Amino acid sequence: MIKIKFLFLTLYLYFIYLMSSLMLFTPVTLLNIYNQNIGFAIKNMFYISLSFCLKYFLKTEVFVNSNRAALDLINENRQVVVIQNHFSEIDYMFVSYFLANFKNFFQVFRYKMIFVAKKLVGNIFIGLGIFSLLSKDLYLNRDIKSDYNKISSNNNANLLYIFPEGTCFNSFTKKISDKFTKKNKLIKFKYHLYPRTTGMHTIIKSNPKYNIVYDFTVMFDTIHKKDLYQIHKFHDFVFKYDFPSRVFININKYNVKLGDHFNQRLEHIYYKKDNFIKKFDVNQNKFKKINFHFEMGLSCFIFSNLITILSIFIYFKYDFIRTLYFFEILLYLIYFNFLQ
Q1: Strand, coil or helix: what is 293?
Q2: Residue 73 and residue 214: Cα distance in Å, rounded?
Q3: Which of 19, 26, 181, 263 is deepest in the core (most CB within 10 A)?
Q4: What span, in angstroms and rounded, lies between the C-alpha atoms of 206 and 196?
Q5: At what angle do helices 126-134 and 37-56 cross, to 10 degrees?
Q6: How far apart are CA 133 and CA 127, in angstroms?
Q7: pLDDT of residue 120
Q8: Number of folded domains that form the chain
């Protein structure tokens, strides 16, 4: 039953993201020329709507080791980097629960969250990709000079969200990582890949203000430790695995600055992550359910659906809107793949 519900939720989310983003694409792009907060606010509202769907439709609860740390993250008066272990393609979804902690819409309109990811995501999920483009998410090329320039020109975010491992953890990617660590005499981890220190170095070098790191170590109740070595694609949660009903996020905060011991500092963080996963028991822990503002979630859910309904209405009512939507998708694909 959970797999079927996740399938329908996925199709629903893809549809509203696509239709809403097409209707908003042109006006929000123009508004962003004058106020870039608009694109961030739209993305925030749709991610909060995502958390509402996960919590109240799939009944997925997120638990954290500290609600104080969860609140501190979104209320930081300094720019922060959030790093996370990465063993599935649904890992990015659960940061949405943190945004649902916003106390009012002023925070929704002012908070700037930037995802750092690969371009493949934007090509598969066009609607999500358009929101991503409007709110300055970074799609890196793994070229130091190019990536440095991209990050340097988009360095005013409250939060940069990144998976330093670069790809999902599984038995195949672990063999590659282990081969690299052996060759370079580095620490071999059991439950995640060796982090890409060059990428983190590039991020912090591009803006020294990004020296506060919140480390997320995430575990699902439906995936046992022995199964972490399996591949967990997005579609696997429809056909193979149950979508998690309990997600556990261990939050740690660090000061990380550039220097001679930068790599060792990052290694130390991942050593602690590895040790946490090794010892963690999903059924015996003192984690608390994350705070969730129902009114905020419901408001964003209503907003996203109203935008979708309006988008569908004008699509069927006006011929030129159908033409406009076609050219918007074409323009997005050209810009995203060749100019971004």
Answers
A1: coil
A2: 8
A3: 19
A4: 16
A5: 140
A6: 10
A7: 57
A8: 1
If you search the block for the tokens 């999903």, which residue do you land on? 282
For residue 183, the model assigns a pLDDT of 92
CA 327 to chain centre: 28
Chain segment 286-327, per-residue pLDDT in tens: 999 999 999 999 999 999 999 999 999 999 999 999 999 999
CA distances (Å), origin 328, targets 20, 118, 130, 229? 12, 22, 10, 40
CA distances from 275 to 166, 213, 257, 279 (A): 20, 19, 23, 6
Place of tokens 């740690």: 252
Q: Is residue 250 a contact partner of residue 197, using CB atoms and an 8 Å limit?
A: no
Residue 9 to residue 27: CA distance in whole angstroms: 27
What's the whole-number mean pLDDT along residues 12-41? 86
Amino acid identity of 269?
A: I
Whether the Cβ atoms of residue 134 and residue 39 lie closer than 8 Å to each other: yes
The CATH number assigned to the domain holding 295 equals 3.40.1130
Quote the domain boundaries for residue 33: 2-339
